[in-house]
Amino acid sequence: MAKRKIVLVGCGAVGSSFIYSAINQGLAQEYVLIDAFEGIAEGNAIDFADCQAALDHPFISIKAGNYSDCKDADIIVITAGRPQKDGETRLNMVADNAKIMKSIALEIKKSGFKGVTIIASNPVDIMTTVYQKITQFDYHQVLGSGTILDTLRLQYLIGEKIAVNPKSVAAYVIGEHGDSSMIPWSSVSVGNKTIYQQITEGRIKEKDLEELRKEVAQRAYKIIKLKRATFYGIGAALALLVRNILEGQNHVLVAGAYLQGEYGQQGFYIGVPTILYEKGWKRVVQLPLTKEEQTAFDKSCAIIKETLETAFAAIK
């Protein structure tokens, strides 16, 4: 097996949670940690190295590095940015994090990096679009975490409601990773039966659908209020995306992909089902949305397009 190298940019709680998931799954043999505060990157590298003797899939090296280490990396995961404050929406962070993302993008571009970039910095749809526009990397080699975490939350909550394993739930949250995300219920199924058949058979009530939507939308705020930040869920979600790209088996997962006419939209990254392979994402999977679902998705897209104007104004 070829030696794999992952670079993490941003060693805060989200980035550290991702690396912890990655090393426990043996996703790579080399890890490089980059952070604006060098001591944090070095401290984390030493701390993670202490896991080595306990791992089922030991790595070769983990170290604090710099952007020159990006040149031969397979995947770069970017989680850098200021954290979301209690009561603040992800969109409130756009100007500050756009400036941070521009500086990171320029450094990575300068390194000669040729691999796949995954971005989780918030607001993620905006930051992914900014990164791609600055670097001019191939659209398909750049992706955001999009609504992967929202989707995993939905699968868990539906599974809990119907008393099935979340992996048996086929469901997606699409649109902005934020308050305007939407659930195309017409495409949700459990055990090959649609959610509406599950309602008919009495396993779930119709009123539960709206409650589930609200719970998914508000879950991050609830966690932030209780413990100031979310990180384990997104860390595991990022590891899931990385694993599916490295394995290159054409799995369908929700991620932030660049729309070029799909769903009647174009010109930005947004959370949609995509086919992942070793070079990033291959194509967007178009769900058959109802008229009402399409309207909700269009509204989410409109918010992203409007917010992008603020982001690009901040980095002129």
Automatic annotation (TrEMBL):
It catalyses: (S)-lactate + NAD(+) = pyruvate + NADH + H(+). Pfam families: Ldh_1_C, Ldh_1_N. Keywords: Cytoplasm, NAD, Oxidoreductase, Phosphoprotein. Its main location: cytoplasm. SUPFAM superfamilies: LDH C-terminal domain-like, NAD(P)-binding Rossmann-fold domains. Its EC number is 1.1.1.27. NAD(+) binds at residues 14, 35, 67, 103, 120-122, 145. It is an enzyme of class 1 (oxidoreductase). The active site is at residue 177. It is found in: Cytoplasm. Residues 147-313 form the Lactate/malate dehydrogenase C-terminal domain. Substrate binds at residues 84, 90, 122-125, 150-153, 230. InterPro entries: L-lactate/malate_DH, L-lactate_DH, L-lactate_DH_AS, Lactate/malate_DH_C, Lactate/malate_DH_N, Lactate_DH/Glyco_Ohase_4_C, NAD(P)-bd_dom_sf. Belongs to the LDH/MDH superfamily. LDH family. HAMAP family: Lactate_dehydrog. Homotetramer. PANTHER family: L-2-HYDROXYCARBOXYLATE DEHYDROGENASE (NAD(P)(+)), L-LACTATE DEHYDROGENASE. This is L-lactate dehydrogenase. It comes from Spiroplasma ixodetis. The gene is ldh.
